[in-house]
């Protein structure tokens, strides 16, 4: 169970203290979800509860959908801006350029 709390702590640390890159923030959120799924699996196995294991599958599916959406946004942002750094990007000034997006 310490591994799960350690994963959550690493994810929170990366989410709070790394505000320069969108990709690292998405990875930190994934680590937090992995830690919670790990702790939930331990509790579910100890209590012989199948509902907890099904909820873990739901958490993993939501995490996969979140990563796919975030990475597609990051690819679009890097094509439009040339960088995915938070300080250099302003979402309000993004302009559509049909030559870049295929």
Automatic annotation (TrEMBL):
<keyword id="KW-1133">Transmembrane helix</keyword>
<dbReference type="GO" id="GO:0008137">
    <property type="term" value="F:NADH dehydrogenase (ubiquinone) activity"/>
</dbReference>
<keyword id="KW-0679">Respiratory chain</keyword>
<dbReference type="InterPro" id="IPR001133">
    <property type="entry name" value="NADH_UbQ_OxRdtase_chain4L/K"/>
</dbReference>
<feature type="transmembrane region" description="Helical">
    <location>
        <begin position="50"/>
        <end position="77"/>
    </location>
</feature>
<keyword id="KW-1278">Translocase</keyword>
<keyword id="KW-0830">Ubiquinone</keyword>
<keyword id="KW-0472">Membrane</keyword>
<feature type="transmembrane region" description="Helical">
    <location>
        <begin position="21"/>
        <end position="44"/>
    </location>
</feature>
<dbReference type="GO" id="GO:0042773">
    <property type="term" value="P:ATP synthesis coupled electron transport"/>
</dbReference>
<protein>
    <recommendedName>
        <fullName>NADH-ubiquinone oxidoreductase chain 4L</fullName>
        <ecNumber>7.1.1.2</ecNumber>
    </recommendedName>
</protein>
<dbReference type="GO" id="GO:0005743">
    <property type="term" value="C:mitochondrial inner membrane"/>
</dbReference>
<dbReference type="GO" id="GO:0016651">
    <property type="term" value="F:oxidoreductase activity, acting on NAD(P)H"/>
</dbReference>
<keyword id="KW-0813">Transport</keyword>
<dbReference type="Pfam" id="PF00420">
    <property type="entry name" value="Oxidored_q2"/>
</dbReference>
<keyword id="KW-0249">Electron transport</keyword>
<keyword id="KW-0496">Mitochondrion</keyword>
<dbReference type="InterPro" id="IPR039428">
    <property type="entry name" value="NUOK/Mnh_C1-like"/>
</dbReference>
<keyword id="KW-0812">Transmembrane</keyword>
<comment type="function">
    <text>Core subunit of the mitochondrial membrane respiratory chain NADH dehydrogenase (Complex I) which catalyzes electron transfer from NADH through the respiratory chain, using ubiquinone as an electron acceptor.</text>
</comment>
<keyword id="KW-0520">NAD</keyword>
<comment type="similarity">
    <text>Belongs to the complex I subunit 4L family.</text>
</comment>
<dbReference type="GO" id="GO:0030964">
    <property type="term" value="C:NADH dehydrogenase complex"/>
</dbReference>
<keyword id="KW-0999">Mitochondrion inner membrane</keyword>
